Amino acid sequence: MTSVEIRQQFLDFFASKQHKIVPSSPIVVKNDPTLLFTNAGMNQFKDYFLGNKKSEFSRIADTQKCLRVSGKHNDLEEVGVDTYHHTMFEMLGNWSFGDYFKAEAIAWSWELLTEIYKLDKNRLYVTVFEGDEKEGIPKDEEAYHEWKKWIPEDRILFGNKKDNFWEMGDTGPCGPCSEIHVDCRSEQERLNTPGKNLVNNDHPQVIEIWNNVFMQFNRSKGGSLVPLPAQHVDTGMGFERLVRVIQGKQSNYDTDVFTGTFNAIENITAKKYDGTDTKEAIAFRVIADHIRAIGFTIADGQLPANTGAGYVIRRILRRAVRYYYSYLDHKQPLLHELMPVLATQFETVFPELYQQIEFVSKVVREEEEAFLRTLDKGLKRIDDIVQATTNDIINGKSVFELFDTFGFPLDLTKLIAAEKNLQIDEAGFALEMQQQKNRSRAAATLDTEDWIVVNEEKEEGFVGYENNLIQTRVNKYRKISAKGKTQYQLVLATTPFYAESGGQIGDTGWLEFGDETVEVTNTKKENDTIVHFAK
Ligand code: SER
User: Fold this and answer.
1) Which pairs with CB-CB distance under 8 Å and at least 24 residues apart come from 148-157?
2) 235 CB near ligand 1 (under 6 Å)
3) Quick check: 228 and 237 in contact, CB under 8 A?
4) Are 333 and 325 a contacting pair, CB within 8 Å?
């Protein structure tokens, strides 16, 4: 089965259970201050869970573009190093808004996995919430009871709050959840170690594919759990993992979700992906993963930038550039060339990238070019810094220099340092950053006093074409303080100083008052008045 068919079967299955199929919401979140990016399929339905709005449909299903690179759900460091975490991934989901609950959600997930996708029942494990005394939530007996109808009890495992109580963020809808895990190891390995010992243990072949959340609470700002007005179902299945399991692959990257991109990278770089854990193979995975986050996010309206959500995208992009530059030995912009491959692959499911492919490719190319201009020097500089580091930690000042001068995001420096068995001083970096912010704030604060008029006659004018040295009078002056320094601005009755305009530099010179000489550092026109800046 192809990935396209697998996605379609999910949607068809839930349509047959009276679910309305809706499009993915944008990956960039604009109207929820608690999130930068969509991190779960349920985000767009948050208000339905909280009871703030009523959904037109009580059952919905879709495939949602998600990004888990910031906040509560952040998988960035695993991406590419392992074979089953992603920055951007598709989450297949079905929802009940005050309609069906645990019995149906559990029965349908079992039906879909075992009867439609025909996964081997003996390789599946499920987890249910063991309860939490501190939160005052009991063991989820109801979910256990429902699962017992489908799966032997020794494959129903109890899990703690970390794994079996799902929360969107620090606040928001939440509830106990029940996960479905699949054991993809060989028969022999399964005989040696039972799969149940490896569930939720970071084993690359025993992985979670589906999470069924039973939304019952809102985590309020103060941290307490407030029961929701109704009970809901929120499920999320990692599409790339599901495809891998159905296609019988050992890695998400070996499925047809990624092979088109891998072929394109191989053609452009003349390198070959071998699926190992070498830096070269990791680079393939990182690039194939990151272009999805970059492409879909820009297509959804978030341009790379220096702050907020835009900086998250810039960081991901720079991380990808560094991987191809260092480990595929490719020194030209590469990511933008992969965008059309991605756009065509997702033309029908997420058409927004295809529709804007020229724009997105151009933005990506410009970003790559900008970073490539400083990357080489930055990498040399980091080598020098590493040489000069006598303990195991790169100091905050150096990390800040790499950030400020060479555009190295903190996490990129951290990654490069880790490759050299070093850590970075994040607190020292934060301090340097704060000091720079204070400096720019001081620079931005201009304290301007009132003009002091000493001569009412209006005869200001420029005479510098005829004379460089003249006798004149001061019409008015005022004191200005900026960057902690004090200067004066003066307006002369007539002046030989040419004022800065149209790219020309304003004249400098001297004013003599009796025995005293004052230096003029610049001359500008402000509201048609020629103003001299004097020390
Ligand atoms: N919200 C849950 C998750 O993201 C299930 O959809 O895992």
Assistant:
1) 149/107, 150/106, 150/107, 150/110, 151/110, 151/121, 151/124, 151/126, 154/196, 155/124, 155/125, 155/126, 155/196, 156/125, 156/126, 156/127, 156/128, 157/125, 157/126, 157/127, 157/128, 157/196, 157/199
2) yes
3) no
4) no
Give the nearest ligand 1 atom to 42 CA: 1
Where helices occur in 445-499 by DSSP H, the ranges are none
Domain boundaries, the chain: 3-252, 258-369, 389-444, 447-534
Whole-Å CA distances, 210 to 207, 237, 366: 9, 4, 38
pLDDT digits (tens, 9 = 90+) for 383-401: 999 999 999 999 999 999 9
| Nearest atom, ligand 1, residue 213 CA | 5
Q: How far is the CA of 199 from the centre of ligand 1 (A)?
A: 18
Atom of ligand 1 nearest to the CA of 168: 1
Distance (Å) of CA 494 to CA 338, 458, 459, 471, 501: 63, 9, 6, 8, 18
- Exposed, middle or buried by CB within 10 Å (0-12, 13-18, 19+), for 156? buried
Cα angle at 429 between 427 and 433, to 5 degrees?
115
Q: Work out the percent of the chain whose per-residue pLDDT is above 70.
A: 98
What secondary structure does DSSP assign to 405-422, as a single string? HH---HHHHHHHHHHTT-
DSSP classification of residue 79: T
Is the shortest distance between the CB of 42 and ligand 1 below 6 Å? yes
Q: Is 458 exposed, middle or buried (0-12, 13-18, 19+ CB in 10 A)?
A: exposed
253, 269, 230, 239: which is closest to 47 by C-alpha? 230
pLDDT band at 526 (very low <50, low <70, confident <90, very high): confident
Beta strands in 68-201 (DSSP E): 69-70, 73-74, 88-97, 124-129, 156-159, 165-167, 172-183
Query: What is the C-alpha to C-alpha distance for residues 159 and 165, in angstroms, rounded to an integer?
Result: 9
pLDDT in tens, 323-342: 999 999 999 999 999 999 99
Taking the centre of ligand 1 as the mean of its atom positions, its distance from the CA of residue 391, in whole angstroms, is 42
Domain 447-534, architecture per CATH: Beta Barrel (2.40)
Q: What DSSP character marks residue 117?
A: S
Q: Could you tell me which of 394, 421, 392, 391 has the C-alpha nearest to residue 410?
A: 394
CB distance 299 to ligand 1 below 6 Å: no
pTM of this structure: 0.80
Distance from the alpha carbon of residue 92 to the mean position of ligand 1, in angstroms:
10
Q: Please state which CATH number belongs to domain 3-252.
A: 3.30.930.10
Ligand 1 contacts CB of residue 328 (under 6 A): no
- The DSSP bridge partners found for residue 420 are none
Q: How far is the CA of 122 from the centre of ligand 1 (A)?
A: 24
Return d(Cα 76, Cα 74) in angstroms, integer: 6
H or E element: which one contains 336? helix 335-345
Looking at the DSSP bridge assignments, the partners of residue 423 are: 393
Of all atoms in ligand 1, which is nearest to the CA of residue 237? 6
Instruction: Indicate which residue's Cα is closest to atom 6 of ligand 1.
Output: 236
